[in-house]
Design brief:
It is a single chain. The protein is built from 12 helices and 14 strands. By secondary structure, it is an alpha/beta fold. It has a domain at about 15-225: Aldolase class I (TIM Barrel, Alpha-Beta Barrel). The longest helix has 16 residues, at about 150-165. It is globular and about 50 Å long. The termini are far apart.
Amino acid sequence: MYNKKNGRFSVPPFAAHKPSGGANEPYFRRKNMDWGMKNRLSQLIQPDGRCFFLPIDHGYFQGPTSCLEKPGETIQPLLPYCDALFVTRGVLRAAVDPVGSKPIILRVSGGTSVLGADLANEVLTTSIDEILRLNATAVGISIFVGSDYERESLMNLADIVNDCEDFGIPVMAVTAVGKELEKRDARYLALASRIAAELGARVVKTYWCKNFDKVTYGCPVPVVMAGGPKCETEKEVFEFVYDGMQNGAVGLNLGRNVWQNPHPVAMMRALHGIIHGNLTAKEAWDLFRELKGEAADHKGTRDGKRKK
């Protein structure tokens, strides 16, 4: 478990909460989990116990986000390196090929925009019938702990868990903070993540922060790191992702820091190396620079794909 000498976890912290099996046994192999739930979680969390989700749901409150104006074109070269897509039903139908697609985490909350008074005032936007119709592997929903709409967002989570558990569909809770980014500290994120798990979320997506082990240690289900606003440098991204993985995260849900980068494929591959290849932040940085250099050989291109 937690090694006080080096301040690290010897196994993912949620492993301590498993009723049976070895310490390194993936979460989705719990014996008290139904076949359908195990099957869907195993599509998201890979055999190494890790995952890399690619979110393209930003338009549900931001509109045509930069570099995501045509989501189908944006994700096409990135798909080989992600384990699942986080997407709304509208973009799923309009821009994602249903043949041979990656597992889908369907965004099911919304109803607000960046122009409105409060991003926290979300409702459930997608019915269980739609979730089943679209063959979603999982669903994702935001909660806003500490906001004026805390109760409403938590009841949204409880309601969708009640619906999805009947059909063996895992729910990923997103600990959103709206426009109040200063809330992203260990104490707040640990509180929000634990509440999400208590209400039945099978996976929690939350922000990386200093002392991230305090967040993961208190959460009995897998924790996936969110990217948040675009970082200033690629090296900064690799460092926080590596730190989070060393301190109990099982994976990453990163969008803007990938597809808003001038070299999104190189960024995606380097991050994939941290998640599934056990690369250090420095090794990922070196790989990114190498891949970036290869792409630069194609002048006027974006990772080798000529701009139109």
